[in-house]
Each structure stands twice: as structure tokens, then as C-alpha cells.
Amino acid sequence: MLTAAPTAGAIVIGAGPAAGAEIGHVSRAGGVPSGGVRSESAGSGVPGYQTVSDGTDGKVAGAAIENLSTDSINEVADAAEQLRATGMNTIELDDWWEVPAANADTVEPYVGTVPDAVLEDEISVARAAGLSVVLTPLIYCNGCLGSFRGVMAPANHQAFFASYSSFMDHFAGLAQASGVSTLFVGSEMSSLEADTARWMSVIAGARREFHRTLVYEEDWSVLGQARFLGAVDEIGVSGYFPLDGSASPSLHQLLGDWRSSSMAAWRARNWVSALAALSARYHRPIVFGESGYLSGDYAAAQPFLNYYSTPNEGLQADLYQALLETFEPYSWWKGVIWWDWSASPDAPAANGRTFTSKSAQVMLTCWYAEGMRPDNPSEALP
Q1: Is there a contact between 355 and 364 (Cβ–Cβ < 8 Å)?
Q2: 46: pLDDT confidence band, cut at 50, 70 and 90?
């Protein structure tokens, strides 16, 4: 996720429930009751809603786990249990290394890096809970704006990619041995995407070690910039598309915004068509490797920024539903990893990005665990 705003002129194609809690449908207006999500049973008897047998529709339905410590097995075990209760099938684990400066040529572990042995145990715990595991090795860029890896400028590209290839080969071998389902070979490294030959080499090296699904994730603001996407199995996109500048747009408005953005700098952009064109160009499905929203007013405006405003859990939930309503029908869309699940829910007055213990978790439980679909897509799930 970006921590600084991309330029408006960037390349774009086209115009927690407690353990053991009963999971069911509850009114979104009241948020998640203390003690977890609970309700009477839902199902086809709820007027205005239908149910499907598989609420995930066979797609990736997952969440990234926020702020894992270097000894976080219990955190992963708890998160896996909660995600399963919400109806999800996937967990994403990140492991962070760093570059010591914006122009550095080496990728190195640092004090916050999760040790291999701990990461292997985390993967094992998540798989034992019945979840597929996505592993995303990531880079902090010291000296970059917002520490964002997308603006790195190594002085020596050859040396940097040699170091990065070793970094990725290491995680590819670990992922293969640990039963990881999907490995991201890069994420939002926009300033380096023009180096196609070196990226092809990185991907080839990772594929020698890892024999399941490989993904590279583009930032939404440079959609289609990378020219090596045909070498991976799926195209990842960080799905923080600007939709609507209103304080609290309706679900109906948000559904329209995906096909004609209301944001001034991106007005009338059809994000659905842009993504469909990208998939068609490379004959690869698209997965949102990251997507999520703050639980406050203006959350639909620039979702890539942490802009804190008046708390608004209903808008966050509507944004989640609008994304799922918009993309589920398309065969080229493989699903979404939500950012994020947190073991420490926001305080009542906060409006952070996690969906934990918020109305968005209720919505996701209705969608995934109960398979609820409204007869009218503009109708919020209860």
C-alpha cells in the first residue's frame, strides 16, 4: 500500500469474533457486538437475499495479518481461527527486509525481520487451520518517502537485482518446503519495473525453487506499466483505486464509481475495464493482492492514503461490498486479500484500516461464511 500519493498522471489503462462465537447475520448499523459476531441463522429465509453454497465463489478470500512480531505464532493461530470463522480461505503472511537507503544496492534483514524458523511455524499453523498461505516478502526503503519501495533508485541496478534475486530465491525455497500456495515475487516496485530482463531473471530463479503460483503485484497507479507480467501465473494489483470524493457515498454510488470514478483527477475512469484489458493483454487472471479501506468519512476518495476523518464503519462495509459485488462475476478476477486483520481492534473513536470487530467484518461474514447475496446489489447486507 502506498504511504504517499501517486501522481495523477501515472500510467493507467482505459478511461473478530471471539473463539467459539456463533457466526451469523447481524445488523451492520450496530457494528459487531462485544464478544464477537452473533445472530440467528440466516439463509434463504431472509427476505431480499439469496444464499450460495460457496460464499467465496471458489476465489481467493483472504486477509493480511498486521504487525506480526518476530515471535508471532500465537498471533497467526488466533488470526487463522478468526478468518476461518469469517468464511475466508486464505491468509497472507509478510516478511519484511530493508534497503538501507533509497539508492542502496543490497536487500538485508533487519531487527523486525521474522526469523525463518518462526515463519515456517506460522505457515504450518495457518495450513493446519485449513487456510491457504500466501507469502509476500517485502522491502522497507529507508530514506524513501513514507519508506515506500515504489520509489527506490539503486545506484547500481545490476548489483541491486543480484541481491534481490538472492533474497527472493531464499523465500522461494522456504515457501516450497513449507507448503505455501502462492508466492509474490515483488510488490509495488514501480520505479524498477522498466528493467524487464532483470525481472524475468528474478521470476525464472524463483520458479526454479517454487513450483506453485507466482504473482507480481503492480500498484494501481501504474497499471500495465510492467512488461514482464506474462512470466508470472497471476497478476497482482494493489486495489486502492480512487472512487468517490464524497464524505459518505451510498453503496449504489460506489458500484457506479468502479465503472466511472467520481474523483476529479481520475474522473470517469473505468477501473473494471482497465483491469479486464490488463488480464486480456497477458492472458493472466488478476488478484487483488492488497485492498482495504479506512473506517471513516472520505474512505472512498484516495484509499491508498491513511487519511483519518470522522469514524464511519458503514462506509467501510459498503466499500467492501461494492468491490465484491463488482468483481465476483468476472472469471478473470481471482479474488482479494484484504488489508487487514489486526489482533488489536481499533478503539471505538478510531477509524483505522483494519476490519477486525467492525461492520465490515459483519459484512464479510455474511458474504463469505453465510453465502448471502442481496437480490438488489445496491442493498447493503444486513
Answers
A1: yes
A2: confident
